[in-house]
């Protein structure tokens, strides 16, 4: 009934968090205590809720119960599916307060916000490289390992990041998505436009 009334009678004693359900408050309280009572029996993963453990177990089983109605995409979580569906609808719910940037996921917005703050949370263990997102760090780490997991379907080109592959594919398609506001110049890379 609390979900209908909007009432949230269960309040955290340490912060302003309130919930309509006691179980949610109990899970929230673990963010303060650090308690992680749910453990994976396959690896060392531990978490604060049974729901998170259930999601984690799919990394071992390979189960992907969430499917897209439009394409063959399958995933492990409903949040990933919601985010994927926006690739079909073009919907960009998350907006930056400082500029006109819009995106489909909260994690992308968080990463984008660091372009304004200059914050670089992710650091390389091997060198002094620092960056704003885990995906950039992953790509950077491949400069040390030499790994090039992204391959072109048309030629023998291999690279370290999906963005590099996307840019390379334009050499085959001839696509020039970057346009100048002042003249008719069009190009395949944002760096060329800059």
From TrEMBL:
- Do you know which SUPFAM superfamilies this protein is assigned to? beta-beta-alpha zinc fingers
Q: Where is this protein localized, as stated in its record?
A: Nucleus
Keywords, A to Z, come to: Metal-binding, Nucleus, Repeat, Transcription, Transcription regulation, Zinc, Zinc-finger
| Keyword match Zinc-finger | yes
Concerning InterPro entries, the annotation shows: Dev/Hematopoietic_TF (IPR051497), Znf_C2H2_sf (IPR036236), Znf_C2H2_type (IPR013087)
Top-level lineage group: Eukaryota
What PROSITE patterns is this protein classified in?
ZINC_FINGER_C2H2_1, ZINC_FINGER_C2H2_2
Q: Name one Pfam family in it.
A: zf-C2H2
Does this UniProt record's set of keywords contain Signal?
no
The record places domain C2H2-type at 10-37, 38-65, 66-93, 94-121, 122-149, 150-177
- The protein in question is named Oocyte zinc finger protein XlCOF6-like
Q: Which organism is it from?
A: Priapulus caudatus (Priapulid worm)
Recall the taxonomic lineage recorded for the source organism: Eukaryota, Metazoa, Ecdysozoa, Scalidophora, Priapulida
Protein encoded by which gene = LOC106819390
């Amino acid at each position: 009934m609390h979900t209908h009334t909007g009432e949230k009678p269960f309040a955290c004693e340490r912060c302003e968090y309130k919930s309509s359900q006691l179980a949610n408050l109990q899970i929230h309280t673990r963010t303060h205590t650090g308690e992680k009572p749910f453990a994976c029996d396959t690896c060392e993963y531990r978490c604060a809720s049974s729901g998170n453990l259930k999601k984690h177990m799919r990394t071992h089983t390979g189960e992907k119960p969430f499917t897209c109605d439009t394409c063959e995409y399958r995933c492990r979580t409903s949040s990933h599916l919601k985010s994927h569906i926006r690739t079909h609808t073009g919907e960009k719910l998350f907006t930056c307060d400082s500029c006109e940037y819009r995106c489909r996921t909260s994690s992308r917005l968080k990463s984008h916000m660091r372009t304004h703050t200059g914050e670089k949370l992710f650091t390389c263990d091997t060198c002094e490289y620092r960056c704003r997102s885990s995906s950039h760090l992953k790509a950077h780490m491949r400069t040390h390992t030499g790994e090039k997991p992204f391959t072109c379907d048309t030629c023998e080109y291999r690279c370290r990041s999906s963005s590099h592959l996307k840019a390379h594919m334009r050499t085959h398609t001839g696509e020039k998505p970057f346009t100048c506001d002042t003249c008719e110049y069009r190009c395949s890379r944002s760096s060329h436009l800059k």
